[in-house]
Amino acid sequence: MNVQIQAEKSANAGMDVAEEFVIETRNVDVFYGDNHAIKGVSLNIPKHQVTALIGPSGCGKSTYLRCLNRMNDTIEGCRVEGEILLDGLDIYASGVDEVLLRARVGMVFQKPNPFPKSIYDNVAYGPRIHGLAANKDELDDIVLTSLERAGLLKEVQDRLHSMGTGLSGGQQQRLCIARALAVRPEIILMDEPCSALDPIATAKVEELIDELKENYTIIIVTHSMQQAARVSQKTAFFHLGDVVESGPTEKVFTSPEDERTQGYITGRFG
Amino acid sequence: MSFYPLLIVLLLMSAVGYWFGSKKALGAVRKSTNFITPRPHQFGLYVVIWALVPPILLGAIWILMQVTPLQMEVGLSQQVNRVLFPVIVLLAAGGGLYFSLQKIGPDLKVRKTIEGLVYIVLILASIISILTTIGIVLSLLFETIQFFKKVPMSEFFFGLTWSPQTALRADQVGSSGAFGSIPLFTGTLLITCIAMCVAVPLGLLSAIYMTEYASQRFRSVVKPMLEILAGIPTVVYGFFAALTVGVFFRDIGDAIGIDIVSESALAAGVVMGMMIIPFVSSLSDDIIMAVPQSLRDGSYGLGATKSETVRNVILPAALPGIVGAVLLAVSRAIGETMIVVMAAGFAANLTANPLEAVTTVTVQIVGLLVGDQEFDSAKTLAAFALALVLFIVTLCLNVIALLVVRKYREKYD
């Protein structure tokens, strides 16, 4: 299955220009018990671009993000309605294996959460589970490539077998990105990946996001308007569980159509 | 005057003191120019302290003198005692009352005195529990030294036979007594091992189910039910083991042609394991819950299933804590008495076969001290030596377990 994904990816590499949606969502509703967290969101995510989800706290952007790899399944009392299509297939249809889905749609969390294992084992975790490497050499190769892509290899090359939890916050977050890359996902979801990092580490992660969009579709939730403007090509503004406005980042930030968007990005509320 | 009227008089005196104290304080406080003064009831308490503490202290000293050898030297007759004791106590109370009532005024540091008393009471409480522990250890130690004067250490620690029947009279035959403790410790080890084989897998797996798989509702119903197991008196486990499980195993043995005695180590061990299940499961439950949710999310986010997450992330992260929990459970099992007394019996066999009867250290201690005994025979003293060794073993296990658990706790806080 992963070989297939690889093949698909290389086939599409040359035609980035044409807008192609990798995820389409139609009328998505999410309930936490009686709480209606997301109200009929329809949004399309373009392939090999960075889509930023912005909005005030509690507006449902993280909830929406967690629908895309069915991480909400692990929360008790959470119910998702509507259609979420990944490459045209409904990921909430019965018979879809959410575990395999999460291998295709990787996730990076708000707080760096490396496992209390060595750096090597952290990155090798996914490949080992999914049997992506036939032998030790292949596994080494995957680990090193992933660390390289996450821009961490140079810093940790000589201590691959020391604890991943011993790295600095920014390095830990890039380790988590490397860990996600090692499973060869098509899409990477990032839930405020820089909120626990200092400006220098943030700059590194942002640079990394910019490089990664060549090969991956990235959806990033962020509270920082500047970050959304810097890294994303598409922006969706969430407000009270609804998408108020979405479109090319430049347009959303320079000439928003809705006055709530205008108010939020100019700092008048939220 | 006997004790109870004395007590009532003392309480009455302090009540009167409280009333007068608060009343006098009310007047004094009104006249005071200070902005903040203690409240009247605090003055009242102050008087009560003065009325109660000196007589209680004196009374305690008096009673101590009665029970210690000092009494013989002082040589007061019962009659004198009867009169002198209440007089001294009442005088102390009256003196305290008078003294404290005199001192009441707006500048008296009443709250400091009350705070001081609270401090002393708290310290006393902890000192008493520590002293008790030390007392227990010392009493064990002295009797053990007595024992080793009668029986050589080498016999106790390396001897292979245990039959503590010593001759009561010189002309009795055949009861020389053998105090080799090895069969007892191997018996304890065997039963503990069986118990852990039952308790650790069942307890750990049920903890994993409770924390990772069960829904909130199921958990809130079943977890308390599991913990009821911990509330069953061990005697009840004991006759469950002796009358139900032991017989059941023996019948199974009969059916498949193996000889299982009804007082087998297996029955006692299995039931003891059941008793320890809630212990293991609720400790591991806490430890597994302490593994941060972010680690689970990280693992699920990489496409791991629940069991892969448990195996590869949660258990390794929780392992030190689980080891600590198991060690605590082991020391619980080693010290457990009632189940083995009822189910395993007294035969000190040196065997590793769980289908035979064995005995444990605790059972033998019970056996040695039950019934009429003289407290200077080797037989009785042996109980103290066994108890001391048992105490040291469980103490070490507990210390190791607590160190392991604490080291683990530091990691995520």
From TrEMBL, chain A:
InterPro entries: AAA+_ATPase, ABC_transporter-like_ATP-bd, ABC_transporter-like_CS, P-loop_NTPase, PstB-like. GO terms for biological process: phosphate ion transmembrane transport. Keywords: ATP-binding, Nucleotide-binding, Phosphate transport, Transport. Transmembrane segments: none annotated. It comes from the Bacteria. Residues 23-265 form the ABC transporter domain. One of its GO terms (cellular component) is membrane. This is Phosphate ABC transporter ATP-binding protein. It comes from Sneathiella chungangensis. The lineage of its organism: Bacteria, Pseudomonadati, Pseudomonadota, Alphaproteobacteria, Sneathiellales.
TrEMBL record, chain B:
The gene is pstC. It is a multi-pass membrane protein. The chain crosses the membrane at residues 6-22, 43-63, 83-101, 117-142, 184-208, 228-249, 255-280, 313-334, 381-405. Belongs to the binding-protein-dependent transport system permease family. CysTW subfamily. This is Phosphate transport system permease protein. One of its GO terms (biological process) is phosphate ion transport. The lineage of its organism: Bacteria, Pseudomonadati, Pseudomonadota, Alphaproteobacteria, Sneathiellales. It is found in: Cell inner membrane; Cell membrane. CDD domains: TM_PBP2.
